[in-house]
Amino acid sequence: MTQLLHLTSPLDAQLWATERRHEGSSIALAPTMGALHNGHAALMERAAELSDLTVVSIFVNPTQFDRSDDFEMYPRTLEDDLRLCESVGIDAVYMPTASAMYPAGFDTTIDPGALAKRWEGEHRVGHFAGVATVVTKLLTAVQPHVAVFGEKDFQQLAIIKHIVRDLGLPVDIIGIPTIREDDGLAMSSRNVRLTPEARADATSIKRGMDEAIGRSQHASDTSQIAEDVTSAITECGGTVEYVAVVDPNTLEPMMTVDRDAQLLVAAWFGGVRLIDNARIPVHS
Ligand code: PAF
Fold first, then answer.
1. How far is the CA of 32 from the centre of ligand 1 (A)?
2. Closest ligand 1 atom, CA of 57?
């Protein structure tokens, strides 16, 4: 096992990264909010493949939570997280405090633009401004050559790629396919808050998506797909927040599947909000 370095302030991280870059090492960053699971392990392993040195950031970012109860109840499992980082062979963990990230008088926000307006952005007002701002700060501190993000947060990944492009940030953003439990449920830090019953019901998200995608044909009506996924979820006791079929690049709604599309889902099970997504390939 490697010795895991703890970086606890933006300045610490910047000094470390500047020195490592000077020595010629490449750096990869896997940004997380902790409560690490096997999905994160996959992110970290990919990050390690892409660079000489791998940093995991662990910061439960208050500014991206639209509900204070969600922030308070967000699982915090630091000791387990550090053990996982060690076992994966991570070089450094960046764990800034909230006051180091947001010192008194902090008053600057990245506005992530049109991609952030719909779907998660509409249902979690301010969420993506919080994500955009904290990710920009994490990238500035750790100065990675590459940063990895899960495709489970499809809209987040699209927004981060767009910000990096628009601001000309010198980092490659890599998406990592969603890691799932054996029954199809997408791995998420929030899954631990599901009761066993809600946990079983929540598998209807992936099942509903798979069935609807399986039925889709060339130029299928997207409202039918959304209806099918919604029924699968509600029949299992879930409450749908949105089901959308969108252009994978613009995230604008599509009327028919006349080209590859992305299915986006947000639903509640037993008081826990889950999101998932899947590609709908166009049939010729
Ligand atoms: O996906 C997450 O865990 C968070 O949104 C991120 C990217 C670490 C920013 O806080």
1. 5
2. 8
Closest CA to 220 of 254, 243, 253: 254
Q: Is the pLDDT of residue 197 over 80?
A: yes
Q: What is the mean pLDDT of residues 165-169?
A: 98
Q: What is the pTM of this model?
A: 0.97
* CA of residue 185 to ligand 1 center, whole Å: 19
With a 6 Å cutoff on the Cβ, whether 204 touches ligand 1 is no
Helices (H), 168-282: 196-201, 204-215, 222-235
Separation CA 30–CA 55 (nearest Å): 6
**Ligand 1 center to 256 CA (angstroms):** 32
pLDDT digits (tens, 9 = 90+) for 209-236: 999 999 999 888 999 999 999 999 999 9
Q: Where do the DSSP E strands lie in 156-217? A: 172-176
The domain 5-176: what is its CATH number? 3.40.50.620
Q: Which of 142, 101, 138, 148 is nearest to 17 (CA)?
A: 142
**Region of residue 191 (left: phi > 0; alpha: psi -120 to 50; beta: else):** alpha
Domain boundaries, the chain: 5-176, 189-278
Least confident among 43-52, 139-148, 217-226: 217-226
Which residue in the list 37, 40, 127, 162 is annotated as catalytic?
40
Q: What share of the chain is helix, strand, coil (3-state, %, to 5)?
A: 45, 20, 35
- DSSP designation for 180: B
Contact 261, 248 (CB under 8 A): yes
The chain-wide mean pLDDT, for the chain, equals 97
What's residue 3's pLDDT?
83
Active site (annotated) includes residue 22: no
Q: Using one digit for the tens of pLDDT, what is the confidence trace for 266-276?
A: 999 999 999 99
CATH 3.30.1300.10 fits domain 189-278: yes
